[in-house]
Specification:
alpha/beta; TIM Barrel; eight-stranded parallel sheet; 10 helices; globular
């Protein structure tokens, strides 16, 4: 019924109870989960997890991981993509992109890895899953130069103009827990007004918890957890349904079709 188009199910936060998390997601109606890698060290983990549970996966090097990555990691990514080229559960290259929010990062090195992975996406004819944080214009610039098969701009939080530019290049936009905060005016406005065929749903679990799971820094310091889970997706979807005035079953059908369009391997 529901597709979680972005969930780091291999994250250590899920180590104590991963099987229970998956059972809760299935009970909530989440029938498919896309698990993106973030670096060479978890290429095999996401592949094995996807095969063990009937999910999908993506292989890539996250922009926040490139500073500790070796140049040879790009070769290892290429080798892994070649090795698993016929794997029906490999649906994208990701999570890749640019992060211009975290201070002190090497932006030139991020761009080097991003462009190299776009070239791999072209070579292997795979869509990409993009990390977009205050970097939309630069991402778009490179996408216009290195045309790929489209994909998903994950956790989108840019302008309407930027959103439509991604859509024009064949991308869907990922919306998740941030949309549930009433003060997230820009995200909620985009969720309400963008073309319906442009939107996919995601949790980014264990990150980006919706408002009902959010904990302040003081609460987290006191030991209260704010871990997000893929089983929260239907409740997150309820926010989108209310914003757009659409029934949940119709929204499930729509966003699942959008996810399969963005990542054809899901079909």
């Amino acid at each position: 019924m529901w597709i979680d188009s972005h969930c780091h199910l291999d994250a250590p936060e899920f180590a104590p109870d991963r099987d229970a998390v998956i059972l809760r997601a299935r009970a909530a109606g989440v029938t498919q989960i896309v698990v993106p890698a973030v670096g060479r060290e978890n290429f095999e983990a996401v592949r094995l997890l996807a095969h063990a549970h009937g999910f999908a996966y993506a292989l890539g090097i996250h922009p926040l991981c490139v500073q500790r990555a070796a140049d040879d990691d790009l070769r290892q990514l290429s080798d892994a993509l070649a090795q698993h080229r016929g794997d029906p559960r490999l649906v994208a290259i990701g999570e890749i992109g640019l992060d211009h929010f975290v201070p002190g990062l090497d932006l030139a090195r991020q761009a080097q890895f991003y462009v190299a992975q776009l070239k791999l996406a072209r070579h292997f004819d795979l869509p990409v899953i993009l990390h977009v944080r205050r970097s939309a214009d630069t991402l778009l610039k490179h996408l216009r130069l290195e045309k790929v098969r489209g994909g998903i701009a994950h956790a989108f939080n840019g302008s309407e103009q930027q959103a439509l530019a991604f859509v024009a290049l064949g991308f869907k936009l990922g919306f998740g827990g941030a949309m549930s905060f009433e003060r997230a005016l820009q995200i909620r406005r985009l969720a309400q007004t963008l073309p319906a065929e442009a939107i996919v749903l995601e949790t980014d679990a264990p990150d980006i918890p919706p408002h009902w799971l959010y904990r302040s820094a003081a609460e987290r310091a006191a030991g209260k957890l704010s871990r997000n889970e893929p089983g929260e997706l239907p409740r997150i979807a309820q926010t989108l349904a209310e914003l757009r005035g659409i029934a949940l079953p119709a929204l499930a059908q729509l966003t699942s079709a959008n996810a399969r369009s963005a990542l054809p391997g899901l079909a």
